[in-house]
Design goal:
Largest sheet of chain A: 8 strands, mixed
Distance between the termini of chain A: 58 Å
Number of strands of chain A: 20
CATH superfamily of the largest domain in chain A: atp-gated p2x4 ion channel domain
Catalytic activity (chains A, B, C): Ca(2+)(in) = Ca(2+)(out)
Largest interface: A-C, 96 and 81 residues
Membrane topology (chains A, B, C): Multi-pass membrane protein
Strand content of chain A: 25-35%
Main location (chains A, B, C): membrane
InterPro entries (chains A, B, C): P2X2_purnocptor, P2X_extracellular_dom_sf, P2X_purnocptor, P2X_receptor, P2X_RECEPTOR_CS
Oligomer: homotrimer
Subcellular location (chains A, B, C): Cell membrane; Membrane
Shape of chain A: elongated
Chain lengths: 396, 396, 396
Amino acid sequence: MTKTAGCCQGCLHYVFDYETPKTLVIPSIRVGFVFRFTQFLVVLYVVGYVCVVQKAYQETDSVLSTVTTKVKGFAFTNTSDADPRFWDVADYVVPPQGGDSFFVLTNMVVTPQQTQSRCPELPNPSTSCVDDCDCIEGYSDPRGNGILTGLCENYSTTVKTCEVISWCPLEIDTKLPEHALLAAAENFTVLIKNSITYPKFNVHRRNILPHINSSYLKRCEFNRTTDPDCPIFRLKHIVSEAGEEFQDMAVKGGILGIIIDWSCDLDWWARKCNPQYSFRRLDNKNPANNVAPGFNFRFAKYYKTPDGEETRTLIKAYGIRFDVVVHGTAGKFGIVPTVVNLGAALTFLSLVPVVADWVMLTCMGKRDLYKKHKITHLNEVADTETMSMGTSYGTQ
Amino acid sequence: MTKTAGCCQGCLHYVFDYETPKTLVIPSIRVGFVFRFTQFLVVLYVVGYVCVVQKAYQETDSVLSTVTTKVKGFAFTNTSDADPRFWDVADYVVPPQGGDSFFVLTNMVVTPQQTQSRCPELPNPSTSCVDDCDCIEGYSDPRGNGILTGLCENYSTTVKTCEVISWCPLEIDTKLPEHALLAAAENFTVLIKNSITYPKFNVHRRNILPHINSSYLKRCEFNRTTDPDCPIFRLKHIVSEAGEEFQDMAVKGGILGIIIDWSCDLDWWARKCNPQYSFRRLDNKNPANNVAPGFNFRFAKYYKTPDGEETRTLIKAYGIRFDVVVHGTAGKFGIVPTVVNLGAALTFLSLVPVVADWVMLTCMGKRDLYKKHKITHLNEVADTETMSMGTSYGTQ
Amino acid sequence: MTKTAGCCQGCLHYVFDYETPKTLVIPSIRVGFVFRFTQFLVVLYVVGYVCVVQKAYQETDSVLSTVTTKVKGFAFTNTSDADPRFWDVADYVVPPQGGDSFFVLTNMVVTPQQTQSRCPELPNPSTSCVDDCDCIEGYSDPRGNGILTGLCENYSTTVKTCEVISWCPLEIDTKLPEHALLAAAENFTVLIKNSITYPKFNVHRRNILPHINSSYLKRCEFNRTTDPDCPIFRLKHIVSEAGEEFQDMAVKGGILGIIIDWSCDLDWWARKCNPQYSFRRLDNKNPANNVAPGFNFRFAKYYKTPDGEETRTLIKAYGIRFDVVVHGTAGKFGIVPTVVNLGAALTFLSLVPVVADWVMLTCMGKRDLYKKHKITHLNEVADTETMSMGTSYGTQ
C-alpha cells in the first residue's frame, strides 16, 4: 500500500465513517407512554393549529384593487326656503367620476349671488362695533369672514358690525335645515364594480361573480341573506347595516365605509376567493371630544353676469361620503413557510426525548437502574479527575 | 473540606459537568454515503432554494408611493352633430389635479340648455300614456327621468308620454357616437412622476432615474425595448401594451391600469431598485354577465341666463380612466428571518442521522452487527422486566 | 400465551419501548464552561434580540385608514396684474371634498375670456412665419397650442406667426408671478381627522386622542414639543418641518407629505398605539434631471355670454398638494411566530453540544481519554471491515 493510498483511505474514512449514538432501549410502558403522548401533543399542535387553523404553510400576498361606483336615483325638493328643484346624479354626486370614494349630498346651506364686495360682518361679540374706531382697517380675524375695511355699518336696524371685504352676502351657516333636504337620497342605489389582483399569484377576480347573469344584475339589490352577491346597494340599507339611521346621518353628514374583504385561500383543495361585504361608520358620531362633527365641505359654482362681473353660488354641502375600502390577504401553499413551520415543529419533537429522559430519571421506580445503564461517569480516571477538580473548584 | 464547600462543589458539578452521548463509528462506505448524500440534499435546498431563489433571509417592507400625472395634447372635433370644437387638457381631463387616477374623455353625449322645467318622458312601454289618468301625479319611476306631473303630453306627433318635472330637455343617451369623438386622444401623452419610500429601510426613489438627463426627458417616449426608463407614455401605446385597441376602448370607455412594480433587493451585493412598468385593462371587456360595461359618468356645467335662471349642460362622459397602481416589496438582509430559516434548515440536518440510522439498521448486510453494537437492551434485568411487562401488557 | 397475544405484545414493545442515547458525563470545568457559555449566548440572542428588540413573537397587520381634511383661512390679493380679490376655501382648495390629498392654490396664471376662435400662435422659432405658405392648414404641432388654419398673421407689429384654431387668447404661462400670489396661504390651517383600523385585531383608533377635549381642539395648533397631539396644522409649520421654505415652494408648487405613522404594539403589557406625525417633501426640488418641476395643473371655469357663446377662464394653478400618507404595522403576540422563533432558537441550542464536543475532542489535554470513552470504533469486526474497506476504497 502506497503512502498516497493510505492518506486517501484515511480521508475517505474521515468523510464516510458514520458516527451514530449508542442507545439504550428501556422496555418500560410508562416511560414509553410519556414519550409517545408528548410526541402526540406536538404533532396535534402542528397539524391542528399550525396547519388547519393558521394555515401557516401558506405564502401570502396583499390585494391590489380598482373600484368604480355609479349612483342612481333622483329627488325633488320643495321647501319654503328655496325654489322647488329637481336633483339628479350630476347635481348631488361630488366628485362625479365614481372612484372608490364618492359623496352623496344630503343637506346644504346655499348662499347664492355672492360677489366680491363689502358687507357688514355677521354679528358676534368680536365683530360688533359702535363706530369706525372699533374696526381696524386691513385687519383680518381668522374666525371672521373677511378683511376689515375700517368702517362700522348697520348689520340690522339694531346691530352694527365692522364692514369686511369678502364674497358678499356672507354665508349664514347656522341656518342648516333640521331635516335633511335630500331625505329621498336614502332610496338611491349604488353599483360597485371592484376588480382585484393578487400580483404574486397572478390571480384576478371581480365582485360580479361568474354565476351571476345580466338579467339578475338588472333587478337585484344587495341583501345579506337573500342576495349576498349582488353588487347593487341601496344607500339606506348600507347605513342601517352599519348600525346608523340614514335620516339622522343625512342632516350633518358622515363617512361610511363599505368594506370589501377579499381574503382568499388559493390552494387547489380550497379555492375560496369571494368578496365579503361589511359596513361601518368611519367617523365618530358623538364623542365628547369632537371638532366639526359630521362631514361637510364648501364648494362654489361660478357665474358671470351679463356685464362681466363674477358671481358665485356658495354651497356648504353636508352629506355622506362613502369610502370603498378593499382589503384582503391571499394564501397559497409555499415551500419556505412550510419548511420553516415544519422545522420549528420538528425542533419541538426533538425536545420530547428531553422530557421523557427527565421523567425516566426522576419519577420512575427503577430510575437508578436506568441511570446506571444510560449514564457513564468517567470512572477510570475518577481519582485524578476529582483531585484536579478539587484544586480548581475548591475554595480552601 | 467543609460542608458548604462540598455542597458548592456538588453544585458546580451539576452546572459544569458536561454530558455527551457515547457514539459508535461505523466504517461503512454505504451508510456513510447515504448520510453525506442526504446532508448534501438538505444543504442544497437551503442554499439553492431558500437563499438564492426565495431570498428568505430578507426582511421585507411595503412601498409608500406618491404619483403626479400630467397629460398633454389637444384635439379638434368637427362632427355633424355639434359645432366644431377645440379641446385641450382643461376640457378633457377630469379631475384636473393629476393624481394617481386620471380620466381622459374620449366620447360623450351632450345635452345642452337643460333647465328645471317640465317635459314629456322618453317613450318606452312604461312611460307611454293615452290620457292623464295613466300618469299618477307625484309618482317617480326609479328607471324614469323625473317626477310625474300627472299630465299626458305629446312626445312626438305619434307618441304620447307622461310629463315629468326634471332637467329638460331630457338626455337621450342612446345617441352615443359610434366612433369616439376624441379619437385623437390616442396621441396624447402623459408624464408620470412617481416617488416611493420604503419607510422601514429609509429608502427613497423616484421613477426619473439618476442617469436620465433633462434633454432626454424632453423628447423621449416610453418604449419597452428602446426607452424602458422614459416616464412619458403615449396613451395609444399604453392601451396596446395592455392588449386592447384604443379606438374600440374609446367608444364606451374603460379602466386601464398602469402598474409600476418597485420590487427591490436592497442588499449591498444586489442594489436593484428600479421601476418596472406594465399595463393591464382592469375592467372586464365583454363578459356575459356585465352591467354598465365600459366606463362613463355624468357631470354638468352650470350657467346662468341673463335673467338669473340656472341652466346646465349635462355631459355623459365616456372615456378611459387610467389608474396608476404602484406596488412592490423591498427586501434586505435581516437577522431574524435568517436565523429562523437557518434554524429550520438545521432541524432538517438533524433529521439526516435518523434516515442514515434507518438505512443502516434495515438495509445493510451487517445490520445485526451494527444493531448489536449500537443498541443495548436493558439485559441485566431482562427477566424481571419481561415478567413485569408480561403482567402489564398481557391480555390473558 | 397465544400467538395473537405474543404478536400484540411485540407490537406494544415496538410502540412503547423507549430508546434513549447512552451518555458519558465529563467532569471537566473547562468543557462545561464552554458548553454553558455557548448556551448563554444563544439564550441571550433569543431573549434580547428576537423578543425585546424585534418582537418576533408578534403577528402583524397593516393599517386601513380614512382621512378627512378641512382647510381654514382666507386671503386678499391686490396686485397690479389683476383686480383686487378676496379668496376663501371654496376658491383655493381643489378638489373641495377634503380627502386624503388636497391642493392649496398659491400662485396662478389666469387667462380670462377665452373663446373657441382663431388667433396667432405665441412667437417662437417653429411658429413664426413670413407668409401663408409657411403654415400648413390642419397641421398641429404637439408643442403648439392649436390647429393651424394656414394663415400667417401679425402677432405683434414686428412678429408674424401662424394662426391657430384654439381657445383664444392663448395662455402665456411664462408670466408667472415671482412672488406667490397667495403668500398669505402660509397662515391657513388644516384640520386632519384620521380614523384607522387593524382588521385582524379588530382595533379602531382615531387621531383625536381620548384625553383631548373639545375646548382644547378649538384653540390648539400642532407643535412637536408643546402640542404633539393637536390635529390642526398651520401650513407654514408643516412646510418648515419638512425642511422647506413656504414662500419658495409656493411660487412653483410642490407636493408635501403629511406622514402619520400608526405603528402599534397591542400586547396588553405594552398598549402603545398613538399616531406620530412627520412631514417630508415628496417631489424633488432641484435635481439636475427634472421635467415640469414643482406642481401645477390647468383647470377652467366655463361661462356663457348673454348670446349663448361659451367662454372660459383658464387657470394654470400652482400650489402645494398635501398628501396625507398613513402607514403602520400593528403587532400582537401570536402563537405561530412565537413557536417558529422559539423553534429556531432551540435548534441553535441543539448545536451547542456540537461546539462543546469539538472543543472537548480537539482542544482539551485529556482529549484522548475523552475520545476513548465517548467513541467506540466497531472493533470486533475491525479486521474484516478494514479488509473489505481496503478492497472497496483501495486504488491498487
